[in-house]
Amino acid sequence: MVKPAGDSSGTATAQARPADPFDAVIRASYGSQGIAEDRSGQQHECVYRRSVGRPYCGDRVRLENTEQNTLVVAQIYPRRNEFARADRMQRKQVVATNLDRVLIVIAPQPAPSRDQAERYLVAVHSLGIEPVLVINKADLLSGEPPADTPFSRLDDYRRLGYAVVEVSCKGEPGVDGLQAYLQQATTILVGQSGVGKSSLANSLIPDLELQTGALSHSTGKGTHTTTTTIMYTLPSGGRLIDSPGVWEYGLWDMTADELAAGFIEFDPYRGQCRFHNCVHHTEPGCAVAAAAANGEILQWRYNSYLRLLQQST
């Protein structure tokens, strides 16, 4: 469990600032400051230097004290990867870094838009992170799932090689199926507002309220925890990052080649098209389009690619 700033009784005291520089990981980042955790589990409020840049949740940083007794980020260590989404201008906006997996949460209520799962999968693949498709509120999927939705295509996703985990916070099958993807790993929960990410976090982190309280205590800010990406410690020893929900996940500006790379079943056919700059749409001699027409690529996935291609151009 993360230790709040203060003495052992929990009473707030002036936090001692280490004299020597030390390494830490960013637990939460907001504006020009954030909360970092050192190797002992102690939390430290820190500020960012414009010359160094803005770290994000999950960043490994070097902190040093100033003459004004303020901890500043002196260095951001190289990142293994970044999870991002598009801002309103379709620019890439980093959300968290140094991840092992992304848990893409969708649920029957609210129902996802037609290509929402594909948007997430494309983004995760393009960033070199392992995706896990989490079907929350699985207890609501009784009988035949709605046609032409991700819930009717779970076996298709599995055949493509994706991990698909069905969970529920209110009944069977529970959330135990997620444990194998969380142990000794840094994982982020992403999904649209209302899919139950907060309920999942509460089910997976028994002392979530205590950790959140410690974070708010350190910052003196009690409201940012619902709108800021935050890293929590799991009982298994891993880390779980909870990100604010969005109504519709958007992709940043991508090239057609980057978009196609997000559809893993295209890989055997890319490079076999007649034209080296083929975008796999109307070009003659397109190996990807031919594979979709022959049933070697799922038609619904190819159609999703075409819709996302149209949106990106």
Give structural notes.
The protein has 313 residues and is α/β, with parallel strands linked by helices. Helices cover 20% and strands 23% of the residues. The chain has seven helices and 13 strands. A six-stranded mixed beta sheet has the order 10-9-8-11-13-12, with helices on both faces. Strand 8, helix 1 and strand 9 form a beta-alpha-beta unit. The protein is globular. Mean pLDDT is 88; it is low at 1-14.
Which features characterize this protein?
globular; disordered N terminus; 6-stranded mixed beta sheet; 5-stranded mixed beta barrel; 313 residues; alpha/beta
Helix content: 10-25%
Overall shape: it is globular
Backbone CA Rg: 22 Å
User: Which regions are unreliable across 5 or more consecutive residues at pLDDT < 50?
Assistant: 1-14
The biggest sheet amounts to: 6 strands, mixed
Widest β-sheet, arrangement of strands: 10-9-8-11-13-12
Q: What structural class should be given to the helix and strand makeup?
A: alpha/beta
Our measurement of the CA-to-CA distance between the termini, rounded to an integer number of angstroms, reads 47 Å
Q: Strand-residue fraction?
A: 15-25%
**How confident overall, as mean pLDDT?**
88
Based on DSSP secondary structure assignment, what is the total number of beta strands? 13
Strand/helix succession: EEEEEEEEHEHEEHHEEHHH
Q: Output the number of helix runs.
A: 7
